[in-house]
Amino acid sequence: MSVQNVVLFDTQPLTLMLGGKLSHINVAYQTYGTLNAEKNNVVLICHALTGDAEPYFDDGRDGWWQNFMGAGLALDTDRYFFISSNVLGGCKGTTGPSSINPQTGKPYGSQFPNIVVQDIVKVQKALLEHLGISHLKAIIGGSFGGMQANQWAIDYPDFMDNIVNLCSSIYFSAEAIGFNHVMRQAVINDPNFNGGDYYDGTPPDQGLSIARMLGMLTYRTDLQLAKAFGRATKSDGSFWGDYFQVESYLSYQGKKFLERFDANSYLHLLRALDMYDPSIGYENIKEALSRIKARYTLVSVTTDQLFKPVDLYKSKQLLEQSGVDLHFYEFPSDYGHDAFLVDYDQFEKRIRDGLAGN
User: Fold this and answer.
1) Does 300 qualify as catalytic in the annotation?
2) Tell me: the pLDDT tens digits for 294-353?
3) Is 337 a catalytic residue?
4) Which of 32, 69, 130, 180 could be stapled to 75 by a disulfide with Cβ–Cβ 3.0 to 4.6 Å?
């Protein structure tokens, strides 16, 4: 199956939460499974920071949720009709900084407006309306996708039956914002960044690669890295380069990332993570969260070094105090924050029950 594309907001521009407007927004999306006659088996998948519209492939390639999705699996394509779209601001088919600005005929670059999660959700809502979907069985997302799922439940409380939020808190912590700041500085201070207008020249690959390496360290755990690499060295390693195996692994991840991601998209989406505040547009956080009507599954990984248990506990408390029908689970995993992408055995039951509303 190939990615599908649709142009939205072509007659009425999208007004953004932080100011500015966007029109003629191209949205890349993919569907899996079969829509039933009642149209009551639809599940929206919200992807994480650097994900895309293709969590699964049926041609031998690996999607970002490949081992979770398929007939009879946790994301059961025999039971549900899944919709997944690339987020606004991304670089995998949906309008973002690398897209052509219709007013100039050139990539947006530095002219791309600031976006927040609420804007991303509005575009997803417009996509579902275009597809004729008026209600969802569930919305599921991990990390940045969990923030999107949470905001869906607030802004459109009657639109879904179930929310499944994997490894994401209501707010991003100060430490996590600090990590993102360092990553942004690596990109912005690359000599090729040029204020974000680098599309006619050399992209800021060095800065983006370094940023990705730091990000990888927040996604995994010291335990997993110790098991995989320990203090093993490379036989051909250089003293100031990739001397240890773990250094080689990080360098590889940084270079690999350059093949599929745009630096400007990375900056915009990192900032959207930082700025996520469910109460934007409402009087306070309690008013916002109390709008949620869906059955809400929240899953925490005790070894998560990015969305730490203390932050998930705070989210749990806020949701419960706001009267949300919350079902909270936690467990350890060697994979830390990335567990929701790879640790099938731990997440299978929580995903199945969360989608079904059990």
Assistant:
1) no
2) 999 999 999 999 999 999 999 999 999 999 999 999 999 999 999 999 999 999 999 999
3) yes
4) 69
The single residue listed with the structure tokens 């932080």 is 18
DSSP string, 214-248: HHHHHHS-HHHHHHHTTT-B-TT--TTSS-BHHHH
- Supply 355's token pair: 């989608």
> Percentage helix, strand, coil, to 5, in the chain?
40, 20, 45
Question: Each residue of 194-230: pLDDT tens digit?
Answer: 999 999 999 999 999 999 999 999 999 999 999 999 9
Distance, CA of 159 to CA of 83 (rounded, Å): 15
Catalytic residue among 143, 248, 300, 315: 143
Question: Is 327 annotated as catalytic?
Answer: no
Judge residue 117's burial from the number of C-beta atoms within 10 Å of its C-beta, 0-12 exposed, 13-18 middle, 19 or more buried.
buried
Helix (H) or strand (E) holding 313: helix 309-321
The beta-strand segments (E) located in the chain are: 4-8, 14-15, 21-22, 25-32, 42-46, 69-70, 75-76, 81-85, 100-101, 106-107, 136-142, 160-166, 295-301, 326-331
Residue type, 70: G
Catalytic position from the list 300, 337, 338, 343: 337
Catalytic residue among 304, 334, 338, 343: 304
Instruction: Assess whether pLDDT exceeds 90 at residue 278.
Output: yes
Distance from chain centroid for Cα 235: 37
